[in-house]
Design brief:
Helix content is 60%, strand content 0%. The radius of gyration is 18 Å and the shape is elongated. The mean pLDDT is 97. The chain is built from twelve helices and no strands.
């Protein structure tokens, strides 16, 4: 199955696929993505809906005491490490990048708490860059469909980048996330309503 058919079918199933983390600025998105590690977007939006009313700039977060931020993001899980990384990233953005979130992957990945997946999301969503962020949904769906055959998110990303044209990477990222989130679930994938099942490695092998 070629990439055009995959994109067409995914768009048919998920016409509203886009970033579900609420944000108004690149910095708010960065904070939200850091908080989203092992946490649902719904929970993150509940947290940031209140958090960003009080603090929403790198300068404000850089001035926060870690304990204060921990109380505000407690329900996101791993709140101590997330608070530490958010404050550290805010300080770096303020001191090294003039208060603006960097718009390229190397500089984004130089920030504490920003790995390749987080950097790809911010680069793609906030700045319109071409990137495929591989989270658990993208990793699962890509390998189930057979458009990737890789043991790690990083290797899956490389294979997806070869399979899809660069100008489609940002759109594909959201489509695969939505498919994993709303159709190709981890435990009970809804194969019957999936338009890709006839060409899906997982569905075919499962019989």
């Amino acid at each position: 199955m070629n990439y055009e058919k995959i994109i067409l079918n995914l768009q048919t199933m998920h016409p509203d696929a886009e970033c579900e983390l609420n944000h108004k600025t690149p910095f708010e998105l960065l904070v939200a993505v850091i908080l989203s590690a092992q946490c649902t977007d719904k929970r993150v939006n509940e947290i940031t809906g209140k958090l960003f009313l009080k603090y929403n700039t790198p300068e404000q977060f850089a001035a926060l005491e870690q304990g204060e931020l921990e109380k505000l993001i407690f329900s996101a899980g791993f709140y101590r490490n997330k608070a530490k990384n958010i404050i550290s990233a805010a300080k770096a953005i303020t001191l090294r990048f003039g208060g603006k979130v960097p718009d390229n992957l190397p500089d984004l990945m130089s920030l504490d708490g920003v790995g390749r997946k987080t950097a790809n999301v911010v680069y793609s969503v906030a700045f319109g860059g071409n990137a495929i962020a591989v989270d658990t949904h993208v990793f699962r769906v890509a390998n189930r469909l057979g458009i990737a055959d890789a043991p790690t998110p990083e290797k899956t990303e490389m294979q997806l980048m070869k399979f899809f044209p660069e100008n489609e990477w940002g759109r594909v990222h959201h489509l695969l996330i939505f498919h994993g989130r709303y159709t190709c679930h981890s435990r009970k994938p809804d194969c019957e309503r999936c338009l890709l099942k006839q060409n899906c490695k997982y569905y075919t092998e499962r019989g």
